[in-house]
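A favour, since you know our C-alpha cells better than I do. What I am after is a single protein written out in full by you. Could you add the entry underneath, on a fresh line?


***
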Amino acid sequence: MTGPHAEPPVAIVAGGGAMPLQVAAACRATGRPYVAVLLEGFAKPAEWPGVPQIVIRLGAAGAAIDWLKRQGARQIVLVGDIRRPSILSLRPDAGAARHIARIGMKAFSGDDTLLSAIRQVLREEGFDPVGPTRFLAEAQAPSGLLTRLGPSAMALADIARGVAVVRALGAVDVGQGAVVQQGLVLGVEAIEGTDALLSRVGGLRRDGPGGVLVKLVKPGQDREVDMPALGPRTVENAIAAGLSGIAFEAEGALLLDRAGMVERADSAGLFLLAIHPDDHVGAATAGAAI
C-alpha cells in the first residue's frame, strides 16, 4: 500500500518470457515503485523476489483488480507471453464473470478483441492500461538493417510476399507472422505462436536459399498492449529452421536483447531487417519460385 504522498506503483501484469522482468528493471532504474500480478503457469514467482505480488490464474480477474486497488496502483502494463484460453477453461471468478456477462462472448473471438475488452474493463475500474514501450522505448528499432548481412533479391521478394500474407492474417485477427521461402508460404502463425511456427516449418523447407520470417503489427492493432515480440530464442529457432533472415515491423515489433540477437544472427549469417511494410508492397512475385 502506498502512503498519501508516495508515487503510486506501476502494476506489471506478467506473463512468461523476459520482457516483464525488463519492465521491472526499467522501473527500478528510474526509482518507480511497482507491484506484480503473476499469471499462473506463465510468470515465475521465484524471479520476483521481494516484489509485492499476487499469483493468479487467468480467470481470476476480479481478485487481481481488488488486490491492485488495495496496492494503490493506477497504471497497468500488460506484458509477456500467454496462451489465450478458451472460455470453457477460463473458470472466471465472480468479478471476471460480471465483466464477461457485460462485454459478451464476442470478446473471445480473437486476440485483439479480447485485449480491447480487457483494456475497456481496466479503464472502467479506474486504471490506466499502457504498453511496455512506455518503459522500454529502446526495444523498438527504426527502419533499417541491424546485421552485417542483408537480404538477397529473392529474400526481398519473400519479404513482400510475407507482408501480404501477414496483413491478410491480421485483418481477421489470426496472427502476426509467416514464413515464406522462394515465394512459397511454408507456414503462418496462429494461436501456437512464433516458436511453434518455426519448429513446424523447419521440416518443410525447400532446397536452395532459406526462407524469411515476417512479423508485423496487425492492421488496427492496439500498439499499447499486444505488440509482436522477437528475441534471441526467435533467432535460434530461425537458424534451426534454415531461414536466411527475419523481417519485422520498424517501430512496431519489440526486440528482447537486441545486442544478443544481432550477435547471434551475425555469427550464423542470418539477416535482421526492420521494415516499413508499405515499402514492400507490390513486389511479392519478383524472384518467386515457379
